[in-house]
Every structure is written in C-alpha cells, then in structure tokens.
C-alpha cells in the first residue's frame, strides 16, 4: 500500500484564528474543532490540525505550509489577501514586502497567520532543480 500524508499538527498562538485565516484564504470549508485541534482539510484530504502551543509565544517553533495551487486558485487567494489588506511577501524571510515571486515560471506569495508563527506559501509551480 502506498503511503500518503494524512494530517500534520501546526503549533500556533490561536488555533481557531489561524485555521479560520487559512480556510478563508483557500476558499475552503470552515475549519472543524476536534478535541484540542482545529482542522482545515486540504483539497487532497490532508488534515492541517492547528494546536494552541503550550509554550510561551516566543518559543513556538515557527511552521511553514506550502500549497501548490492552480493559476485560477492563486488569483482568488491573492484577491482575498488584497481585499483583507493582509501583508504579503515574495520570500519567506520577509525581505520583499508587497510583491509576489515568479520562481520556475509561476507565481508565489507568502503570508503569516494572525499570530505570526506560521508562514503560509501559495505557489503555482512546484520547485525544480534550478530557480
């Protein structure tokens, strides 16, 4: 039987706010609470389980989620980012604010969850051997 990713746990400051933020950007179903988790389900059925961190905010291990989306999905996501005046960057180091990137002939953008601990990346082309 081939293996497939079923779910991941993402530590954050406010699980419900982070899950709602992601689901709204994706245009996905509303997140569901499940025990101590609030879950967003991706289109390929991977559960992204947000969990309030048990450590002080400055000690949270910063996470990174990357979504490969179609050009049409990117347009819709980017429109939601702009409509909500969400800060965005072309890079995960947050050095190029207010721009998207065009790596591998596609488009990419980074935003951070409301607590600032999870980088969320949307790309239209998978990474290859040479940028």
Helix and strand element order: EHEEEEHEE
| Biggest sheet details | 4 strands, mixed
The CATH topology is what? 2,3-Dihydroxybiphenyl 1,2-Dioxygenase, domain 1
CATH level-1 class = Alpha Beta
Instruction: Work out the helicity level.
Output: 10-25%
* Record field, number of beta strands: 7
Structural domains: how many:
1
CATH superfamily: 2,3-Dihydroxybiphenyl 1,2-Dioxygenase, domain 1
Shape: globular
User: How far from one another are the termini?
Assistant: 34 Å
Which structural category do the helix and sheet elements fall into? alpha/beta
Total count of helical runs of at least 4 residues: 2
Spans of at least 5 consecutive residues whose pLDDT stays below 50 are none
Task: Give a description of the structure.
It is globular and about 40 Å long. The strands form two sheets. The chain has a four-stranded mixed sheet, with helices on one face. The longest helix is centred in the middle third of the chain and has 13 residues, at about 70-85. It contains two helices and seven strands, in the order βαββββαββ. It has helices spanning about 15-25, 70-85; strands at about 5-10, 30-35, 35-40, 45-50, 65-70, 110, 120-125. It has a single domain, classed as 2,3-Dihydroxybiphenyl 1,2-Dioxygenase, domain 1. It is an alpha/beta fold. The mean pLDDT is about 90.
Concise structural overview:
This protein is of the alpha/beta class and 131 residues long. The protein has helices at residues 15-26, 71-83; strands at 7-12, 32-34, 37-41, 47-52, 63-68, 108-112, 118-123.
């Amino acid at each position: 039987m081939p293996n497939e990713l079923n779910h991941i746990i993402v530590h954050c400051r406010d699980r419900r706010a982070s899950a709602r933020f992601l689901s709204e950007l994706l245009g996905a179903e509303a997140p569901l609470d499940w025990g101590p988790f609030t879950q967003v389900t991706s289109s390929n059925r991977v559960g992204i389980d947000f969990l309030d961190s048990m450590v002080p905010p400055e000690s949270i291990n910063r996470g990174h989620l990357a979504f490969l989306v179609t050009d049409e999905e990117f347009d819709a996501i980017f429109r939601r980012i702009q409509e909500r005046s969400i800060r965005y960057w072309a890079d995960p180091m947050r050095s190029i604010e207010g721009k998207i990137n065009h790596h591998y002939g596609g488009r990419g953008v980074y935003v951070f969850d409301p607590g600032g601990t999870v980088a969320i990346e949307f790309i239209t082309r998978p990474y290859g051997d040479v940028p």
